[in-house]
Amino acid sequence: MASLFYFAPLLKRLEGGYAGNIDGKTCTMQGITLGVYQKHFGKHKTCSDLKRISDSEWYTITKIDYWDAVRADEIANQSVANIIVDWVFNSGKSVVKRIQKIVGVVPDGIFGKRTLAAINNADQKELFEKIKASRKAFFDEIIERNPSKAKFRRGWYNRLNHFKFVD
């Protein structure tokens, strides 16, 4: 079964460090937004606090809000779990419906037993490649809807290319 322990170092590396606005109200650290940080650790937390997020706090948020949201501990293949969690981490839980369509279950947005079984019963390499292709198409759809986002295409593709299938 997959483990966040193996995925966390890659995710942290891909997310990088701190990004904030002058207003001090909009910021992220290693991919965690101020709003998500406040949800876990209190509305009184600021961008300055987030800038000093501990590894333990980051891991807790990532585990609860992203890894556990797609039951990744129960996904049989680490590579499949990694690419799914990264997509949810970057694009939100709405992508669960896209994943469900790929594996042939009713796209209800709930990552339940049927979705998990369909993922684990699929050919893992084939599934990984389908998810990767769907994610690339997802990026292209974003750009088609909003051409100003084209400036992010290379970065999005580069990130996606960090994901390789390992049996």
CATH topology: Chitosanase, subunit A, domain 1
Mean pLDDT across all residues, rounded? Answer: 95
**How many helices?**
9
- The backbone outline, from C-alpha atoms, is globular
Please give the share of residues in helix: 55-70%
Strand content: under 5%
Which segments are poorly predicted (pLDDT under 50) over 5 or more consecutive residues? none
Task: Summarize the SSE layout with pairings.
Elements: H1 4-15, E1 18-20, E2 27-29, E3 32-33, H2 34-41, H3 47-51, H4 55-67, H5 78-91, H6 95-103, H7 113-121, H8 124-145, H9 153-160
Antiparallel strand pairs: 1-2, 2-3
Helix pairs in contact: 4-5, 5-8, 6-8, 8-9
Textual characterization of the structure:
The structure is a single chain. This protein has 167 residues and is mainly α. It has a single domain, classed as Chitosanase, subunit A, domain 1, CATH 1.20.141.10. It is built from nine helices and three strands, in the order αβββαααααααα. The protein has helices spanning 4-15, 34-41, 47-51, 55-67, 78-91, 95-103, 113-121, 124-145, 153-160, and strands at 18-20, 27-29, 32-33. A hairpin with a 2-residue loop joins β2 and β3 (32-33). α4 (55-67) crosses α5 (78-91).
